[in-house]
Design goal:
single chain; mainly beta; DUF427_sf; 7 strands; DUF427 domain-containing protein; three-stranded antiparallel sheet; two-stranded antiparallel sheet; DUF427; 0% helix; 65 residues
């Protein structure tokens, strides 16, 4: 397959935080970074590191863990 895209996954060696609308959505020291040739890098967090989830009805709300 000549047109196959290369996807690479890396462990991130530093803390990664994601904020949305000024609220801390996720905070991790064990995030993964996905890199694909034509797209910007993406971070993936474990469920334990995500504090808020998106709901189309209530925007973001705190997870009950």
């Amino acid at each position: 397959m000549q047109n196959a895209r290369c996807i690479e996954l890396y462990f991130v060696s530093q803390r990664v935080q994601k904020h949305v609308d000024g609220k801390l959505l996720a905070d991790s020291t064990q995030a993964l970074e996905l890199q694909e040739q034509v797209y910007p890098p993406r971070h993936y967090f474990s469920r334990e590191d995500v504090r808020w989830i998106y709901s189309p009805f209530r925007k973001y709300h705190l997870l009950s863990l």
